[in-house]
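Entry 14. Structure prediction run on the chain below.
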Amino acid sequence: MSALVQRVRTARAGVVAAVAAHDPAAVSLAVDELEDALRAARQQGVDVPAEQTDVAIEQEWG
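Output returned:
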């Protein structure tokens, strides 16, 4: 697994944890990291598959 894919997975987990903690500041930081990780993967041409947590977050905040 690519380091970039792992970075995205870790960032996704950070968003889930921040949402579960109901901590708006942590959510903001976690989303920033996720966006940075996804941007880095996209720039390197790394395909990052969607995960179930993406759907759960969208439903929670959607």
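The helical segments are 3-20, 24-43, 52-61.
Filed with the rest of this week's runs.
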